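S.,

Sequence below, as promised.
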Amino acid sequence: MKDSASKSHAKRLVLLFWVLVLIFYFYLSYDYIRISSADTKFQDYLEHVVQLAGNDNRPSKETRALILVKADELGIPIQGDQISILGGGNTLNVAVSYDVEIDVPIFRKGFYTKHFDHKASYRQQVN
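The prediction came back faster than expected:
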């Protein structure tokens, strides 16, 4: 009788362990997908801003501010010094480099760091 009860408890513990591993895996996957999705939106916006800033000859300070506002909106941790703006108008080039940590669910500590590099340059519109 004790043997059967201990086997039952062992099976429950193993099942609980695998359920926790599954939850951990799905949380990490969700966080990774969320970060990748935000980065894709950021890349599209960066291309758009570079085209607008190049067409309108906007100053680099304004371009940097637009990029930082969008990054904050998307929850991307970018500081002003991580944005490199070279040239202006037809020669505008922007480079953004940043790291994002993927958290461990229980500890809220960085488990994995994903590095992103983006480069966008103005392209003359052909009519």
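Residues 2-121 form one domain.

Coffee later?
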